[in-house]
Here is the input.
Amino acid sequence: MGLRRKLVLGAVLIVTGLALSAGGCALQRLPNVPQEITGPPASPPVLAAFKSDPAVQTQEDWQDRRAPLLKARFQSEIYGAMPGPAAYEIVSRELLQKPEKGAIGTIERITIAIKTAQAGPWPGGHPTVDLILMIPKGKGPFPVIAGGTFCGNDALLPKQPGVRTTSMALPQECGGGAPGFLVTAIFGRHANAPPWETLAEKGYALASWHPGDVVPDVPVVAEPYLQALTPVGTPPDKRTGAIAAWAWTSSRVVDVLSADPRLDPKRVLLWGHSRHGKAALLSAAFDPRPAAVWALQSGTAGAALGRDDVGESVADITTSFPHWFAPAYRAFAGKPADLDVDQHQLIALLAPRPVLIGTGRRDQWGDPHGSFRALKGADPAYQLFGESAFSQTKLRQPDGTGVLAFYMRPGLHGIHTEDWAEALSFFDRTVQKPASN
Ligand code: GCU
Here is the structure.
């Protein structure tokens, strides 16, 4: 590199460093949320009479009457119609790594073609998902932690040459956007890449993919993909939103994972950060197979209650991300209390499976208080199944007993080592047992 280029590069790094530390200081000044729980309890009470449906008394009432009713409302008011069933085909399997040292056995790429009912703008007419699957050394079948990530597979495996990112449009912050070190400085060490080695050491397989392979996370650009996924005959204001499309994509991945003899189909665990946390919750609400869910900072239309409009409002989220939702959701901007459903009812649809909700103390946008109250509001549905109550009373003191769990770590929006530590100890406690037990 010539002297001139070195000088220019040095200047760029210094300016970036200064901007970063100034930005970092500003971010650190964002106020913490209060330590004491604030806000009204979740409403409507989860087992109370709902519209013309009488109060729920038994598991059967819940499963046969209430759950289908809630699923219908979540689709028509918020997420749009869930795409219909679809078969898949494995197009190729490719071994990417087989490290000699460490706990990782293999890392491979499985390319999956999804046979959607209608053709769409995808290359070849149907979506193709590149699934990255890590299998630990040792004897399976292994539990697998599965989740979609923001920026495509080459951000996931930065040291792996030739792991192609999706050919679909990436959101601004990914496609040639901020350099990796900036992303890590702002959003945490694991913003893009999970702790592969730690997971393998603890006996977990990892499945990761880019939801943008199916619907690009870019407003307007996403529209024709959403149209193609929307079941025929759906009214336009209920067309499938991207969160629903990504949730459905998770289920297609679960199809593949459940058929892999190296993995335990009874221990497929979903996770997601933020928008992908919203999708993970929705996916497990509609699909009984995931054994547990960890949703980190999933906020509005995720784990946080929406009726009080604390945190990100319906107006904000539908302005910035209109493609995430059914167009009908926008009508509740400024009047979220008019929605028939709220997010504690979404969590309740996962009962009796374990759910961990992670939050950050300075992440006001993600609404830790609303997420805590949503768990409290979902709890009576869990008790119907004989699960212990969500008895945590303080945001900062996880009680480490029930299958509904909450933590609030210091800091902002991002994925840190301590988030993964919380999730792994939760999964160890609630589901990481040999399949025969
Ligand atoms: C934005 C959006 C949130 C979302 C978050 C994320 O902040 O407003 O709703 O959860 O992005 O996905 O990181």
User: Anything to note?
Assistant: The CA atoms of residues 346 and 425 lie 24 Å apart. The chain has a mean pLDDT of 91.
